[in-house]
Write a structure and sequence with these properties.
By secondary structure, the protein is an all-alpha fold. It is built from two helices and no strands. The protein starts with a helix and ends with a helix.
């Protein structure tokens, strides 16, 4: 279903959506990494 939907959509729109999605993913990964770093620091302090 998704593939046929993408074929109907203009290429520029698809590319913009992909870029936006990739940017959101990168931001999410950065936020998660920051949280993981904090958790690791707290865990090492507990020891």
């Amino acid at each position: 279903h998704m593939v046929s939907l993408i074929m109907l959509v203009d290429d520029d729109i698809v590319n913009d959506t992909r870029k936006a999605f990739r940017t959101d993913l990168l931001i999410l990964i950065m936020i998660l990494r920051n949280h993981l770093d904090c958790d690791l620091n707290v865990a090492s302090k507990v020891k």
